[in-house]
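I am writing to request your help with a piece of structural work I have in hand. What I wish to show you is a protein chain and, alongside it, a tokenised description of its three-dimensional fold. Could you please explain, in whatever detail you think fit, how the structure tokens follow from the sequence? You will find the record immediately after this paragraph.
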Amino acid sequence: MARWPYITSKWKKLRLVKLGQNPICEICERRGMTVEANTVDHIKPISQGGAAYPELSGLMALCARCHNEKTAGFDRTHGNSTGRRFKGCDAEGEPIDPSDGWWGGGGSDHESGSSC
């Protein structure tokens, strides 16, 4: 992680603000677990055209496990066939991934009542 922008004071401040706003891993919380967030992730990776210093809404507070899951399955492969960054559904059957098309984006099955 010792590469730009992660070594800058601007990123370090942004990271602390995000973790202060969301101290619990956002994905684990959707999975019904309480796990401390220790990583801040760009929702749209810099390598895919994302901003180095996005608004807080462009970042996710994650635990190391969820961050590694997203990085390996989505960021490094420039997406995947489903477009989902995180696998699985919550207790109500709704996709865990807040970027999933079911939540209102393209390719949604929301109207048909199908989610996962």
Notes: The chain has a mean pLDDT of 81. The radius of gyration is 15 Å.
